[in-house]
């Protein structure tokens, strides 16, 4: 195995991806063109459009030559990456070497070897060539650490507990094997029923992906659509409109191979017999620790009881999987493989973390305005607060200051949420204020800064919130404000920072582990349940607030 090849992957991810570097979706090109209007991003956008065109050209060449086995094109030959042979893992020693490099800990009975490259999947698992082309066309050239381990496990139909840092590619780690398994399963059922000549077959939902939020479910479905192009696999995000089509019979569930959904919508349909889940063979809980928390547990249970296929394989994914969640998972799984990348529940090491003592609520406003004035507030920025009311109040303050900002929380309509996300993704909007509704899974490209205006109520919440930056090999910054009311809550943050070796700038007493003892389990539970009562944010006169808000 070529160790340098493996090591260089992180570096190439870093090099090739800058702000908004999503080369796959044509709508991104349009929005980037629109962005040219904005002076500050002009140069950046022009560079990206050029890069997009050259990249597109290269991708087309690469895909053509892969399909035709044609190596004659000079452009393709000259590309350094094409000169290297795909890494293949064929022995236990090579697997050990790769796991050491990737910081992967894999346990379980009869664990499969990891993959060294996506091409490795062709020889070992007869991966669909179209699926491989789709990966390459979307710039997914090499598997990340979690993909190396999770993909072969799922292709061997193993139950799986997978924990890997935020932004490390967990979504593709479950989507690639899911798609391949469903392709194989469809071929098998076609053969059983005598091939294509027997007319159109009734399909069944075979894959189910559960996500705790609508935004994340939609994002997963978008990713799924990209990699299933030309594969004849039908996927659906169970939004309000699709759910009502199922209910009224306008759209038949039997058209779909894979459904991505939040728990409640699914349960509602199952209870009303509008959806049959008894043929589902592959189940994924994304952000599983959130779905296994007490607020969701009943719904998760209801879903599990509707999944009756004896072939059912289950996997759970998150950046934070507590031992309690692992215990619950073991209770519903058969002989699972456990994959942990890096330190369990640690922050992504590409994120520079900082805490700022602000004294009181007013001090936080002063601190944020100070950051804006002194250049520490480099967009795109996401600001997290503990409640809807506080998010609204800070939105009014920053809008009053003339900042290019919008807010997302559970009280805004789906359309308002989607619009704000689209504007933020395109770069039109520079700052997004939100609650924990956007803290998990959402993949915005090139976020520069996360501000925890309010301290998150658990170390897990902190890891997910700051994980919106520092994704796919990029770097990012996270700043957490705290006041004298946060003496307990800030310990969650400090402990994560200390585990990441980020004690620079931290008060001396916080660096000392004995002085800052860990919170007791009971105290942690209480902090998670109850929201800290905080002083008011708002300083903007009411009459002005209304005028401005309506305008926005
Ligand atoms: N093999 C790959 N090569 C290049 N980019 C990749 C690869 N796999 C994933 N990515 C990109 O990395 C980014 C992060 O991936 P993803 O959203 O799956 O992270 P995650 O681990 O699920 O994070 P979170 O814990 O926050 O949900 C995405 O933009 C995705 O397109």
Automatic annotation (TrEMBL):
Enzyme class, first EC level, given as a word: hydrolase
GO biological process: endonucleolytic cleavage in 5'-ETS of tricistronic rRNA transcript (SSU-rRNA, 5.8S rRNA, LSU-rRNA); endonucleolytic cleavage in ITS1 to separate SSU-rRNA from 5.8S rRNA and LSU-rRNA from tricistronic rRNA transcript (SSU-rRNA, 5.8S rRNA, LSU-rRNA); endonucleolytic cleavage to generate mature 5'-end of SSU-rRNA from (SSU-rRNA, 5.8S rRNA, LSU-rRNA); snoRNA localization
Region (Disordered): 64-85
Catalytic activity: ATP + H2O = ADP + phosphate + H(+)
A Pfam family that the UniProt record links to this protein: DEAD
CDD domains: DEADc_DDX52, SF2_C_DEAD
Keyword set includes Hydrolase: yes
Residues in Helicase ATP-binding domain copies: 151-339
Keyword field contains Transport: no
Sequence ranges assigned to domain Helicase C-terminal in this UniProt record: 350-514
EC number(s) on file: 3.6.4.13
GO cellular component: cytosol; small-subunit processome
GO molecular function: ATP binding; hydrolase activity; RNA binding; RNA helicase activity
Stored InterPro entries: DDX52/Rok1_DEADc (IPR044764), DEAD/DEAH_box_helicase_dom (IPR011545), DEAD_box_RNA_helicase (IPR050079), Helicase_ATP-bd (IPR014001), Helicase_C-like (IPR001650), P-loop_NTPase (IPR027417)
Keywords for this protein: ATP-binding, Helicase, Hydrolase, Nucleotide-binding, RNA-binding
Family affiliation: Belongs to the DEAD box helicase family. DDX52/ROK1 subfamily.
Protein's recorded name: RNA helicase
Naturally occurring in which organism (per UniProt): Pichia membranifaciens NRRL Y-2026
């Amino acid at each position: 195995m070529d160790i340098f090849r493996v090591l260089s992957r992180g570096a190439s991810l870093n090099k090739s991806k800058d702000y908004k570097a999503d080369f796959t979706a044509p709508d991104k090109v349009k929005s980037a063109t629109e962005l040219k209007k904005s002076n500050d991003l002009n140069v950046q956008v022009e560079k990206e459009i050029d890069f997009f065109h050259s990249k597109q050209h290269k991708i087309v060449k690469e895909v053509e030559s892969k399909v035709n086995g044609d190596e004659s094109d000079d452009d393709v030959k000259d590309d350094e990456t094409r000169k290297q042979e795909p890494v293949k893992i064929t022995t236990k020693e090579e697997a050990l070497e790769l796991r050491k490099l990737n910081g992967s800990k894999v346990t379980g009975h009869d664990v499969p070897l990891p993959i060294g490259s996506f091409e490795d999947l062709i020889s070992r698992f007869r991966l669909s060539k179209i699926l491989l082309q789709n990966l390459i066309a979307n710039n997914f050239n090499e598997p990340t650490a979690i993909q190396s381990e999770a993909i072969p496990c799922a292709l061997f139909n193993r139950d799986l507990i997978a924990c890997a840092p935020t932004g490390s590619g967990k979504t593709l780690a479950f989507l690639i094997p899911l798609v391949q398994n469903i392709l194989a399963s469809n071929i098998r059922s076609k053969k059983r029923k005598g091939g294509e000549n027997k007319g159109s077959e009734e399909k069944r939902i075979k894959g189910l992906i559960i996500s705790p939020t609508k935004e994340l479910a939609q994002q997963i479905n978008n990713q799924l659509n990209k990699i299933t192009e030309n594969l004849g696999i039908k996927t659906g995000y169970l939004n309000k409109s699709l759910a009502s089509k199922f209910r009224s019979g306008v759209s038949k569930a039997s058209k779909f191979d894979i459904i991505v959904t939040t728990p409640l919508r699914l349960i509602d349909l199952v209870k009303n017999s509008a959806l049959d889940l008894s043929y589902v063979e592959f189940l994924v809980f994304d952000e599983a620790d959130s779905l296994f928390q007490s607020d969701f547990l009943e719904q998760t249970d209801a879903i599990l009881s509707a999944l009756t296929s004896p072939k059912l394989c289950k996997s759970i994914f998150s950046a934070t999987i507590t031992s309690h969640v692992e215990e619950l998972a073991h209770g519903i799984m058969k002989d699972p493989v456990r994959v942990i990348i890096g330190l369990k529940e640690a922050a992504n090491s590409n994120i520079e973390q900082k805490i700022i003592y602000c004294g009181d609520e007013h001090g936080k406003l002063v601190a944020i305005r100070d950051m804006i004035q002194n250049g520490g507030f480099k967009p795109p920025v996401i600001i997290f607060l503990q409640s809807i009311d506080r998010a609204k109040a800070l939105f009014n303050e920053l809008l009053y200051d003339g900042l290019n900002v919008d807010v997302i929380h559970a009280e805004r309509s789906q359309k308002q949420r989607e619009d704000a996300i689209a504007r933020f993704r395109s770069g039109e909007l520079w700052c997004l204020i939100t609650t924990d509704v956007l803290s998990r899974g959402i993949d915005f490209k090139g976020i520069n800064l996360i501000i925890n205006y309010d301290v998150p109520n658990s170390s897990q919440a902190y890891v997910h919130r700051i994980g919106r930056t520092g994704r796919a090999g990029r770097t990012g910054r996270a700043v957490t404000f705290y006041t004298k009311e946060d003496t307990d809550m800030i310990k969650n943050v400090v402990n994560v920072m200390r585990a990441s070796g980020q004690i620079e700038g931290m008060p001396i007493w916080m660096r000392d582990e004995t002085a800052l003892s860990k919170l007791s389990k009971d105290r942690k539970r209480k902090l998670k349940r109850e929201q800290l009562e905080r002083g008011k944010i708002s300083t903007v006169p009411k009459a002005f607030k209304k005028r401005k808000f309506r305008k926005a």
